[in-house]
Specification:
CATH class of one domain: Alpha Beta
CATH superfamily of one domain: Periplasmic binding protein-like II
Structural class: alpha/beta
Number of helices: 13
CATH topology of one domain: D-Maltodextrin-Binding Protein, domain 2
Length: 362
């Protein structure tokens, strides 16, 4: 009898455990796992950890419309989100993803909610012209070269006075101040290759020193001339970038593993790869590249934000596409999501959302 009661108790406990496990599994199944990654202006996370942006705010609206419970799972890149979909880790990707025929074998796209074109960003032509362009893009190399010229002037002035002061007092004699001043005049004439001849060394060491100064000056002045000429060339290239045909002769930045990179590589253009749009724009402003090709909405967003008046978007689109959410193949969410997206696109919410993030600065 005791053994029978123990067996019944153990069976009841097992049933309770199984019921609780099944209940938890059912609850988990009702909570959608939604992948996301930071991609301004489509998905951005503020200091408090809250997400906002065109795509994620649209997702919030359609999910509320359908009564869906979901949790957001952040990933580092779109490639990581697609891997998560393929491995069954998430049920949806709430990003603004370019619709691609190549991906239809692995995933499904919802109704597109925004058109997207590729555009070119360059450094704007300065109203003050080429001088501002040079000043705005001064490289450390030019600064170092100018500093070396100053040092050369000082060394040449003091050195020629020190070597010639006893044997050549007519040119470099007198007090140290007078002798160094005469040496400075000689150095200026020598470095600039003018060579007036009113101050000349007469000693062997003085003439050898003069030859060394001339050679050093020739190298440094050539470097300065070359750097300034290259800046003028960069300015002209920026001014002449008007479309796809111009990109083959300049340094172009893109986001790595993006549709833009594929688009350019297919056309024989080998771009410089960056992790995201802002680093590419930083390189553009710094003069490390000549243009950035990215989605037109992203470029508009940054042109009205941190890069206002520092970049210019070239008129005209390189290529057009559409943005949508992504679901696993065969997902039952596709039809209800499509209907909810269509309802939102027809209402006033969508126009206000796009205007907020693309058509004006907050």
């Amino acid at each position: 009898m005791v053994g029978s009661r123990r067996a019944r108790s153990a069976l009841a406990a097992l049933v309770l455990v199984c019921s609780a496990t099944l209940a938890r599994s059912a609850d988990d199944a009702e909570i959608l796992r939604v992948g996301i990654y930071e991609d301004p202006p489509f998905a951005m996370k503020d200091a408090g950890g809250r997400w906002n942006g065109i795509a994620i705010e649209l997702w919030h609206r359609v999910a509320d419309d359908l009564g869906l419970d979901y949790e957001l799972r952040e990933y580092a890149s779109p490639a990581a989100v697609f891997r998560a979909i393929g491995q069954g880790e998430i049920d949806a990707f709430a990003g603004a993803v370019p619709v691609s025929s190549a991906r239809f074998e692995d995933v499904e796209f919802t109704t597109p909610f925004l058109s997207k074109s590729f555009s070119i960003a360059t450094v704007p032509a300065n109203a003050a012209g080429w001088l501002d362009s040079i000043v705005g893009h001064l490289s450390p190399r030019l600064g170092y070269t100018l500093a070396a010229l100053v040092v050369l002037f000082a060394v040449a002035s003091i050195g020629i006075w020190w070597i010639e002061r006893h044997r050549n007092p007519e040119h470099f004699g007198g007090s140290p101040a007078r002798g160094i001043a005469e040496g400075f005049w000689w150095a200026a004439a020598t470095v600039t290759t003018v060579g007036y001849g009113d101050r000349t060394p007469v000693t062997l060491f003085g003439r050898l020193f003069a030859v060394a100064v001339m050679l050093a000056a020739l190298v440094l002045v050539s470097l300065v001339t070359g750097i300034i000429a290259s800046q003028l060339t960069v300015h002209e290239l920026h001014a002449r970038i008007r479309g796809l045909a111009d990109l083959a002769r300049v340094r172009v930045g893109v986001v790595e593993e993006s549709p833009v990179e594929e688009f350019l590589v297919e056309r024989g253009i080998r771009p410089v790869r960056f992790a995201d749009v802002p680093p590419a724009l930083d390189a553009l402003v710094a003069g490390q590249i000549d243009a950035v090709v990215a989605g037109e909405p992203e470029l508009r967003y940054h042109a009205r934000g941190d890069f206002e008046e520092r970049i210019a978007i070239v008129p005209g689109a390189l290529d057009r596409g559409f943005l949508a959410f992504v679901l696993p193949s065969g997902s039952p969410l596709r039809r209800p999501l499509n209907a909810a997206i269509a309802r939102e696109l027809e209402g006033p919410f969508w126009a206000r959302l796009v205007e907020q993030h693309l058509d004006r600065r907050e």
